[in-house]
Amino acid sequence: MLKRLLVGRPLGSDRLAETLLPKKIALPVFASDALSSVAYAPDEIFLTLSVAGLGAYAFSWKVGIAVGLVMLVVVAAYRQNVHAYPSGGGDYEVATTNLGPTAGLTVASALLVDYVLTVAVSISSAAQYGAAAIPALKGHEPLVACLAVAVLTAMNLRGVRESGGLFAIPTYVFMFSILGMALIGLVRLTFGALPMAESARFGVETQPAYEGGFVTLAGAFLVLRAFSSGCAALTGVEAISNGVPAFERPKSKNAATTLALLGGIAVTMLLSILTLAHFTKIKFVDTADISREPAAERSARHPRGRRVGAVRRRHDVHPGPGDRALAKSVFHGFPPAFYLVAAATGIILVLAANTAFNGFPVLGSILARDGYLPKQPAHPRRPAGLQQRHPGARADGRGADPGVRRAGHPADPGSTSWACSSRSPPARSA
């Protein structure tokens, strides 16, 4: 009973096509990691530029445009990859085919480590975000993170189609809440009714190394550093190219369309947040840079106005993710909308880890098929009467069989589909 509850009912090989993903489900399943980057990529740009003072904030939108252009170029490149390499190997297959097995293994190793770190970073960020929003969770972040990983694991045991249907709702809520916030914010800005951010009243002191502005070498490198930090928005874009077999037919076309949707939505959200942050004068400063000099000395040095060093509450200058700080300004006087954005941001940080649950099994299966991992992920042994069927696997387990439909694992990463028979069912032609 417990196994049936966690894994679901056995599914015959002739029904594996039912597990493939339409574009409306594939977008939230594979793009949650990339979309979640919008929650912190703008913050990284502002945090980097803040060391050069308030004047540096004027470069934020220019850095954002550069990041957006790079993302569009990367999306365009992956759109070509999904047509040229539709088997689901992604960067591993591209590197192996064009540069040889050594380069392919290097890329595959980096991807496997990246998937593990994606789970660790996303879940840790979500736990810290939750603790900041709910004081009762402070001090229990490790437990919250472990429970979140356990929940994601349990949900993915039922397969990517079923888990994707559940994960699609909060992902779409996040997208529409951010895009809605951007639209309302721009409308209020047009009519002059956009309130300033809570941190707008503070100043930011320029660090001595950057007093010469951006005409110096240090200033130029600071802009480049802000650009590299903002490129965190590109994380997770490769997940779609790694999961092409999970799409409904025509697989490559649907994957390319989903990539285009991801690129357009992510760039729009990123630039919208940066634009609104510029006009609401949000201040983001690394809390480690806040001065701790005595209040009397600060007052003597800065009799007019307030600088960041005079702030006693750190959240005044770094009030959490940029979208949450913006939501306070845009939805001023309407708290439910603010809480919706804050909740959606926290949930999307958790769901970003789901990208690894979808990508790791696919890549692991392909590496096992090529002999670089134990054979169990590619051809697991099962007792008589319960045999797992993988796409492209011969009945004798010796490579690809073009007569077997390319569906299921690895087309359905994270799922297990079983054919109940004492012998293998006959292969069906595509």
UniProtKB/TrEMBL annotation:
Residues 421-430 have a biased composition (Low complexity). Residues 293-322, 374-430 are annotated as: Disordered. InterPro entries: AA/rel_permease1 (IPR002293), APC_K+_Transporter (IPR053153). It is a multi-pass membrane protein. The keyword Membrane applies. Its main location: membrane. It is found in: Membrane. Keywords: Membrane, Transmembrane, Transmembrane helix. The chain crosses the membrane at residues 54-78, 172-194, 214-237, 258-279, 337-357. Residues 301-316 have a biased composition (Basic residues). This is Amino acid permease.
